[in-house]
Amino acid sequence: MKTRDVARAAILVAVAVALSPFFIPVGITKCFPAQHMINVIAAVMLGPTYAICIAFIAAVLRNLLGLGTLLAFPGGMIGALLAGLAYQAFKNMYLAGLGEVIGTGLIGAMASAWLIGPVLMGKSMALGTLIVAFSVSTLGGTALGLIVLNILRRGGIWQPTSN
Amino acid sequence: MPPIDRPGLSPVAYKPIESGWIMANLDPRTRLAFLAAAVGAVLVTRRPETLAAESLLLLGGVVLLKADRRLGHLRHLFGPMIALVFVTGLVFFDLQTALTLAARLFNLLAVSFVCFQTIDPEEMAGALQKLGIPFGLVFILSAGLRYVPLIGRKIRNILDAQQARGIDLRPRIKNISNFAALLTPLVVQAFVLSDELALAMESRGFGCKNRSSRRTYSLRPIDCILMGVSLGGLCLLAWWERG
Amino acid sequence: MAAYVELNRVSYRYPGATRTLKEIDLTIPAGESTAVFGASGSGKSTLAYLFNGLIPHFFGGLLEGTVVVAGNPTRNTMVSELFPHVGLVLQNTDAQLFNATVADDIAFGLESLGYPAIDIRKRTHRISDALGITHLLHRSPETLSGGEKRLAAIATVLCLDPALLVLDEPFAGLDHRGTRIVSDLLRQIQRHGKNLILIEHRTKPFFTEADRCIIIDQGAVSFDGKPAESSGVLLDSHLMPRYPERRIRTRSRSDEPVLVIKDLSCRIEGRDVLSDISLSLTRGEAVAIVGENGAGKTTLIKHFNGLYQPTTGEVSFKGRCIRSLHPSARAVAVGVCFQNPNDQFFEADVRKEILAGPKRLGKYDRKWFEQICDTLCLHLLLDRSPYRLSEGEKRRVALASILVMRPEVLVLDEPTAGQDGRFKEILVHICGSISAMGTAMVVVTHDLDFARASADRWVVMHAGRIAGDGAPEEMREKHLSILDNATDRPPRSVAGCV
Ligand SMILES: Nc1ncnc2c1ncn2[C@@H]1O[C@H](COP(=O)(O)OP(=O)(O)OP(=O)(O)O)[C@@H](O)[C@H]1O
Ligand SMILES: Nc1ncnc2c1ncn2[C@@H]1O[C@H](COP(=O)(O)OP(=O)(O)OP(=O)(O)O)[C@@H](O)[C@H]1O
Ligand SMILES: [Mg+2]
Ligand SMILES: [Mg+2]
């Protein structure tokens, strides 16, 4: 059983990295959905431990290949963890999606803001701007992840584990 | 960054640049320690003068590594983020803070970029394994890396196949409902591939307990000295910035 | 001779599925090589998984009867103990080669067994010498050609010196040159007294050299005997296709060309992939594009429907440059059905899948849809999930999803790869009906018999150029060296690997 999960994790990492140049322009910002989509899928299919490992390794690879920056670490791992925990607790993929959005859009953005400059943490308005900017990607990615999961379920490729 | 229309078009984009000479003779663990110390150094920096000095140093590093062309790829990621932080700083604080924030972010991104570019992915895997990270995790890293170009090729094939039947997949917001046509076949095939990969791993003894390694690394005195120097430097800087 | 493998009344069902293998009795003496044939989905790969214990240890499911390999009953022996004795080479070389370089891949099995680094290095060099792949050791599998990948995949298990080698469709997707290299290697391995089990759809390569031939039909052994005696059975069970005689129609000069390619060349990353290609297609014509792996066939057809912009030259459809049309209009002009049907499926059922294109363009024509379903016999599949179809059915659905756009030119990229004889017969029939509707047909293929049965004109490609264009027989004779008989380097000895 374990071999199968490791193999699945490796391929999900590859998908997250290979898709990472893919973005959708949204107004003045850009939505990079890849990592967040994989976070939701990994959280639902493999659980929190694998999800966070996948996010970590994907971030390392993106940095190694010059496809991402240091912010890929807080921007991917926290969401993966929360999504995985949410799915483990409630067995509901929409709540996993919510976990990802909160984890990345709120906590991830705060962690990144703290890395950039602790002064940012002092002013809620400034923090708010960053949070909104960070949320574009996670919202798009989570939506796409949920759509894909739904199609997989209807097509009979994957079944959610029952409680 | 590969052209927006066709993510993954260029397999070159997935290859790390050659940086061989700079730290080629060091144990990968030393390079990891160096990376950690460098990132730490940027994080503990408080004074504007030190920040500026670091920025200059990093720019030098980028040129030295001949990585500026590659950095150009990254400006899609770097540029907007630095601009956003700068504007936020300007609106909610003052010019001085805005500049400090932007410089700090630049340093942070650039330092990780420069350091990561000197690490060869396979050595990274070796280093992690030597550091006692479980083989499963290291395997995910190396196999993930191996399959990135393959998945890139798959993405390209799917884009071609879907566009051949009239489904518009150019990354526009109006096409968002069509993206399922890219992502679903991709994820489905990723699962098929992962099942086959699991078969291949299992039939070559992935689960075996007493695994050996074809690569051997050993810490030489120079490695230990350099590790000590970089950690010492970090502590010194932290103390200086505090004082 | 002692039996190396013994299967005693073996039945198997995958978890949650019906019985895949039914009461198989099989004894393979040491040193015998066996070719296994069977229709798509008959259970050949499943049989392969029995030998190294993947069934039952990895797949679970219900295994009845006993499998004994090298004296070990597989039910009580883990895969990790069996794999040094039984080398399994999967059909998909991309899965088989999962490390950064070929050298790492060859080393993986040895590392699992805990060999010291120095022994690993020695063995890697010995095996790569024997197979002639030393120059590939430091390359990533991603950069290898199909034939090279296959050799490397075989090397990854051969380095463990297994007594039994099981190969799942080793010739799939290879051109004659790759086929030749792999079958030479198999011959060498055979000569060294190893057991070979070869699972195949293609009946030409290596077949006659096997000691024994087994045919699996719906999970049960339906023939077991000498290869020489099997050809009648193979034909009768449609494993070897039996094509109708084709009368070649030459095109009349008066026909208006639909698609014209003029002086096309294409550079990708500084390499000339295509140069000086000129070609024209008329209504109702049936053309086959044949040539070696990497000759540029797929790249060429990606220019047909404007997916690629030619570096120089032009592709025009009825007098207009194809790139000047809107992307959706291109799909209506030239339909291209790519090699892998799984690249297309994203809807929950076949009906939606076929209509995905027309629905988006607002061009749903019910009558035409019904007609296509008739031609391709799809009525019974319409409500099923496309992912759950057999490979042949998937291909038909993919073809329908292109045809439903009513393209005037239809291009099929390697439609027969990995398919059994029955599907090939059906496909020749389908191609005939499509041509009869007036669509210009292009098939890209390595399978010359199929090309002969489905096309009136052959375009032979070699190294990015058109080497010849004309009637099949003429082309076959003129370009023997490209199509059939290229002189390869002499086979090396695998003496070193034992
Ligand atoms: N993991 C699985 N779970 C359930 N059913 C399976 C699984 N793998 C294969 N099957 C089913 O078992 C049957 C035999 O499959 P198998 O792959 O052995 O066929 P095959 O003869 O190798 O076909 P092909 O020539 O297409 O490779 C098929 O009907 C297939 O749907
Ligand atoms: N996007 C690309 N980037 C780099 N090289 C490419 C690309 N597409 C094709 N090539 C190269 O162009 C050559 C022709 O490839 P192509 O896929 O057209 O061959 P083919 O005739 O279809 O081969 P096969 O029979 O194996 O399918 C190959 O050497 C391939 O490596
Ligand atoms: Mg099979
Ligand atoms: Mg091709």
Quick one: biggest sheet of chain C? 6 strands, mixed
User: Which class do the helix and strand fractions of chain C yield?
Assistant: alpha/beta
**Terminal Cα span of chain B:** 42 Å
* Quaternary form: heterotrimer
Are any ligands bound, and if so which? adenosine-5'-triphosphate, magnesium ion
Fraction of residues of chain B in helices? 55-70%
**Helix and strand element order of chain B:** HHHHHHHH
Total helical elements of chain B: 8
Shape of chain C: globular
Placed side by side, the strands forming the largest sheet of chain C appear as 6-7-8-3-9-10
Number of strands of chain C: 20
Strand content of chain B: under 5%
3D shape of chain B: flat
Rg of chain B, please?
Answer: 22 Å
Structural class of chain B: mainly alpha
**pLDDT averaged residue by residue of chain C:** 87
Structural notes for this entry:
By secondary structure, chain A is mainly α. Chain A has 7 helices and 2 strands; from the N terminus they run αββαααααα. Chain A has helices at residues 2-19, 34-46, 48-64, 72-90, 93-116, 119-122, 124-154; strands spanning 24-26, 29-31. Chain A has a two-stranded antiparallel sheet with strand order 1-2. The longest helix of chain A has 31 residues, at 124-154. Chain B starts with 27 loop residues before the first helix and ends with a helix. With 243 residues, chain B is mostly helical. The radius of gyration of chain B is 22 Å and the shape is flat. Chain B is built from 8 helices and no strands. Chain C contains 18 helices and 20 strands. Chain C has helices at residues 44-51, 54-57, 79-82, 93-96, 102-112, 117-131, 146-158, 176-191, 227-236, 297-304, 327-333, 350-361, 366-376, 391-403, 421-436, 448-454, 472-478, 480-483; strands at 3-13, 19-29, 33-38, 62-69, 72-73, 86-89, 164-168, 195-199, 212-217, 220-225, 257-268, 271-282, 286-291, 312-317, 320-321, 334-337, 409-413, 440-444, 457-462, 465-470. In chain C, the strands form 4 sheets. In chain C, strands 6-7-8-3-9-10 form a 6-stranded mixed sheet, with helices on both faces. Chain C has a 6-stranded mixed sheet with strand order 16-17-18-13-19-20, with helices on both faces. In chain C, strands 2-1-4-5 form a 4-stranded antiparallel sheet, covered by helices on one side. The model of chain C is unreliable at 485-498 (pLDDT under 50). The chains are: A mainly alpha (163), B mainly alpha (243), C alpha/beta (498). Chains A and B meet through α1, β1, α3 and α7 of A and α3, α4, α6 and α7 of B.
